[in-house]
Structure formats: structure tokens, C-alpha cells
From TrEMBL:
Record's keyword annotation contains Magnesium: no
Pfam families: PAP_fibrillin (PF04755)
The organism's taxonomic lineage, starting at the top: Eukaryota, Viridiplantae, Streptophyta, Embryophyta, Tracheophyta
UniProt-recorded name of the protein: Plastid lipid-associated protein/fibrillin conserved domain-containing protein
Subcellular location: Plastid, Chloroplast
Main location: plastid
Residue stretches making up the Plastid lipid-associated protein/fibrillin conserved domain: 79-261
One GO-annotated biological process of the protein: plastoquinone biosynthetic process
Amino acid sequence: MSGKLIQPPSMAASRGAISRRTGDAKMLLSFSNFNRKTLSFSDNPLRLRPVFIGKVPEQSSASSPNEQEEEDEVLAVSQIKEELYEALKGINRGIFGIKSEKKAEIERLVNLLECRNPTPEPTGELDKIGGCWRLIYSTITVLGSKRTKLGLRDFVSLGDLLQQIDIAQGKTVHVLKFDVRGLNLLDGEFRIVASFKIISKSSVEITYESSTIVPDQLMNIFRKNMNLLLGIFNPEGLFEISYLDEDLKVGRDGKGNVFVLERTE
């Protein structure tokens, strides 16, 4: 009687398995317990395709500061402007205040534009500066008692804020349009006339000359608060043009206020 030695399963066999089926050209090899991933191969006469099955690391929806900087670097000017216009929707130019998060977002986009300024010496290309510009954002605000005294909380609405620049005369006219409920003053406006002179490759000095309010009914409303109105909107002082192209201008005054204007007729 002959004895037959039975071998116990090897350690390798406990980790993997090879399964064959008669008449089938497919062979499945499965290796597990390799960094908690499974590696499978499907073998057929025509191709061998590896398939990796594993857990994909979860990614946070919030970008890190470094990732944000990298994304900012590749943004084109057209995309930045598009995002800026989107951020400015519904905030009424920021005149009556905005949330800090929104302000930070706008400031970031403005900074990105300034880093890509196509006209680094704007005062040397005055033809690009002249014409009419409309304010679409400013960090100047009219809040609290100032807004109440000017009637901008109740019956006076602030319309377009325009900047008309006459290069030949060296003059600027700042126009604030108002609508007054009940008086139907659709064309009421406050005009500030100033002169300017070039003081550097990117900045000018603005000097106040005069101001008027028309029609008389509107003047009567603001007469008591003319100094307040001028204190807020008088453009006098240093103005640096930090970004300029065919249809958009960004500037900063001597107090650090930011102004974003678009060209208009």
C-alpha cells in the first residue's frame, strides 16, 4: 500500500486564485490585499486590458490659497472681465455698501486686471482716456446718516454716474443723475467741473473748479447738504489709472478708493 503525501495550501494560494474554464479563452487573475486595492486582468486572444479598482480620494470643493493663485495666473483678461461684470450684478455700484465677501471677490478681480494692464503708461495715450465713462463700481459709499440727509433712502434715487473727459481742454465733468419721486425730474443732475494735469506716466492731478445742480427744484432739495454732496463725490486730488483698454478703465484716488468705469456714449 503506497502512501500519498498531501501538501497543505501554500501562502501564495491563500492570496490569489486562478480560475480556468474549458473551451473558454478567458482567464481571470485576481490579486488582493495589495495596498487595499484589487488588480484584475481580463485575458483574451485579441487584447489584454488592465482594470484598476480602488477608492478615489475625496477632494474638497474649496480651493487652497496656492490652487487659487495658480487658477488666477491662467485666467485671460476677457474671462476676468466677464467674472467681474457677473460679480457687480445687483450691488448698485457698491454705493450703498456690500458684504465683505463680495467686496473681497471684486477686489481680487480688479487686482488681476491691473496685473494685465495693456496700457501701462495711459497718460502717454490720451486718446484712449478721452470720452465718456460710466461708473460701474466704487468703494466710495453713502451710508447711515449721510444717505438719510441726502434723501437717497426715501424719495431721491441715484441714477448714472458719468465722467466726461475733454482731452483738448484738459477738463473733466462729473455728472450724477437723480430721479425724484413725485417731481418727475427724470433729467435732474449734479455737475462737477474740474481740470486735470499729468503728473506721471499713469496719474493725473484733478482740481475742482465749480459745481451746479439742475433744475432749481432739485437744487432746493440739496441746498442744505451741498457740502456733504461735494465731500462724497468731489473728484479733486490724485487719480491713478491702473488699468485701461478700449472699453474699461480702473483707477484709484489718493485715498485708496477704487473706481471701475466702462466706456459709454
